[in-house]
Specification:
2 domains, 9 helices, 37% helix, globular, Spore Coat Polysaccharide Biosynthesis Protein SpsA, Chain A, disordered N terminus, alpha/beta, 10-stranded mixed beta sheet, two-stranded antiparallel ribbon
Length: 305
């Protein structure tokens, strides 16, 4: 592990699994930020020379090399343990398939400073093709349909979403206060990837913290808005972990109804896949694994992200 000597209070944790070109592009936007930060790249056992390429192009970036792919939860947890041990006061969990506007870090930190009750701040997330179409303007938990919704997804940004408290923040770019992370614990690795940030946000809110969306901070994320464009791994983990989240966070009195709706939502995804001529096996596997309490990484999907 390379260890630069200068370590600002803000740490940016860039999680990657292959996709070196995207990682380098992300790091270039971090290098152009107006606010200082210590950048740590977490190489989640990539096979494309990520660590060597990052060291060559960005010698001041610290690199944490993991021996196996620990997913979003495990990879970020390894990085957060290291950052907390080194005295980080705030940590930005950042996907490698993101690009930041130059003042993004400054706006996120200003919002965190202005709201001491906030455990975490999330930026306005746009789609990859520009700064016009919203991917996420904060998130709400829809208990009626047992789902989590990224507000504004697919809408043109006309300034319609103000800074405010939200139910959850998109995990592609999430600035967390170290004190909050220390209080509630780190990400739950039962999820492996998807829904773990929603679970984390729910735990923070349960502990009395708020979560805030800050539209002045801007990020682009290379992620599809429609399930038809998602990978097999994404569809599986989103289905299984949706069930896990609502099983854990729904009050007992409402749990039978909410869980029935969650199961219905997963099954409906399988029916939609079948109508489109693709397999519904992933949703069926998600339902089986949830029923059998098989969580963490699904090894049949090794090598997929």
């Amino acid at each position: 592990m390379s260890t630069p000597t200068s370590r600002p209070a803000l740490w940016v944790l860039v999680l990657c699994y292959n996709q070196i070109a995207l990682t380098l592009e992300c790091l270039a936007t971090l290098a152009a930020q107006t606010h200082p930060a210590h950048v740590l790249v977490i190489d989640n056992a990539s096979s494309d020379g990520t660590a060597e390429q990052v060291a060559r192009h960005f010698p001041n970036v610290e690199i944490l090399r993991l021996a196996t792919n620990l997913g979003y939860a495990g990879g970020n947890n390894a990085a957060m343990r290291h950052a907390l041990a080194c005295g980080a006061e705030a940590m930005l969990l950042l996907n490698n398939d993101t690009r930041l506007a130059p003042t993004c870090l400054a706006e996120l930190v200003a919002a965190l400073d202005a709201h001491p009750e906030a455990a975490a701040i999330g930026p306005m997330v746009y789609t990859w093709d520009g700064w016009d179409t919203i991917s996420s303007a904060g998130g709400i938990i829809n208990w009626a349909h047992a789902d989590a919704v990224n507000v504004g997804a697919g809408e043109p940004d006309s300034g319609q979403y103000a800074a405010r408290a939200v139910d959850f923040l998109n995990g592609c770019a999430l600035l967390v206060r170290s004190a909050a992370a220390a209080q509630v614990g780190l990400l739950d690795e039962h999820y492996f990837m998807y829904w773990e940030e929603t679970d984390w946000c729910a735990r923070m809110r349960h502990a009395g913290w708020t979560l805030r969306f800050e539209p002045a901070a801007r990020v682009q994320h290379k992620a599809p808005l429609e399930p038809e464009a998602m990978s097999r791994a994404a569809l599986y983990y989103m289905a299984r972990n949706r069930l896990l989240f609502f099983a854990r966070h729904t009050p007992w009195a409402r749990r039978p109804v909410v869980m029935a709706r969650a199961v219905h939502g997963v099954a409906r995804g399988g029916l939609r896949a079948r109508r489109q001529g693709t397999s519904s096996a992933l949703e069926q596997q998600a339902l089986r694994d949830f029923a059998l309490r098989r969580f963490g990484q699904q090894h049949a999907l090794n090598g997929e992200w």
